[in-house]
């Protein structure tokens, strides 16, 4: 029988983790602690975007905690760069990264979106659409969304020297 398309189990139902890129996954906290699934997916690094949810108990999986609540007043912005760079480092080392929060909706989606903006050079709209395609429930709260908009502006500022190097073809 033909192999199931990625993102579905053999019976065709969606499995509870979602691939944003070939090496970046997003999920809720319950899925993140499914050690069989993590081992099967080859996850080597976790970004736990919660104050209280546990890390998976696998020795081969390293991780960082981003201690924020899903509250529009929280400053997630100050973690965008650190998380994006940690994800990229794991990916470049041949690993796979899982970003998760309690429900896999707001905090984790914002971090994945920030990563795609910083390291895949995607505009906010395209970055978020990529995350949403992988995890349809993704929806950063209004505060995180405005922080992502600010991050997009900041990344544009830091990219201006590149535009000069490339000439106007890329505009």
From TrEMBL:
Catalytic activity entry: O-phospho-L-tyrosyl-[protein] + H2O = L-tyrosyl-[protein] + phosphate; O-phospho-L-seryl-[protein] + H2O = L-seryl-[protein] + phosphate; O-phospho-L-threonyl-[protein] + H2O = L-threonyl-[protein] + phosphate
Matches recorded under InterPro entries: Atypical_DUSP_subfamB, Dual-sp_phosphatase_cat-dom, Dual_spec_Phospatases, Prot-tyrosine_phosphatase-like, Tyr_Pase_dom, TYR_PHOSPHATASE_DUAL_dom
Entry GO CC: cytoplasm
GO molecular function: MAP kinase tyrosine/serine/threonine phosphatase activity; protein serine/threonine phosphatase activity; protein tyrosine phosphatase activity
Entry's EC annotation: 3.1.3.16, 3.1.3.48
Keywords: Hydrolase, Protein phosphatase
Sequence ranges assigned to domain Tyrosine-protein phosphatase in this UniProt record: 13-157
Domain of life: Eukaryota
SUPFAM superfamilies: (Phosphotyrosine protein) phosphatases II
Domain Tyrosine specific protein phosphatases residue range list: 77-136
Keyword check for Oxidoreductase: no
Enzyme class, spelled out: hydrolase
Pfam families from the UniProt entry: DSPc (PF00782)
Record PANTHER family: DUAL SPECIFICITY PHOSPHATASE 28, IP21249P
Complexes and interactors: Monomer.
Protein family: Belongs to the protein-tyrosine phosphatase family. Non-receptor class dual specificity subfamily.
Role noted for this protein: Has phosphatase activity with the synthetic substrate 6,8-difluoro-4-methylumbelliferyl phosphate (in vitro). Has almost no detectable activity with phosphotyrosine, even less activity with phosphothreonine and displays complete lack of activity with phosphoserine. The poor activity with phosphotyrosine may be due to steric hindrance by bulky amino acid sidechains that obstruct access to the active site.
Name of this protein: Dual specificity phosphatase 28
């Amino acid at each position: 029988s033909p192999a199931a398309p990625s993102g579905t189990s053999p019976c065709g139902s969606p499995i509870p983790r979602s691939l944003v890129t070939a090496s970046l996954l997003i999920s809720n906290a319950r899925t993140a602690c499914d050690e069989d699934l993590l081992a099967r997916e080859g996850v080597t690094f976790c970004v736990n975007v919660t104050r209280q949810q546990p890390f998976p108990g696998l020795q081969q999986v390293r991780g960082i905690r981003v201690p924020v609540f899903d509250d529009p007043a929280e400053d997630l912005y100050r973690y965008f760069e650190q998380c994006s760079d940690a994800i990229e480092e794991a990916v470049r080392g041949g690993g796979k990264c899982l970003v998760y929060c309690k429900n896999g909706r707001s905090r984790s989606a914002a971090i994945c979106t920030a990563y795609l903006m910083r390291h895949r050079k995607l505009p906010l709209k395209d970055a978020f659409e990529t995350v949403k395609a992988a995890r349809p429930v993704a929806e950063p709260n209004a505060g995180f969304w405005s922080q992502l908009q600010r991050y997009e502006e900041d990344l544009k500022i830091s990219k201006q020297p590149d535009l000069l190097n490339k000439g106007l073809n890329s505009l």
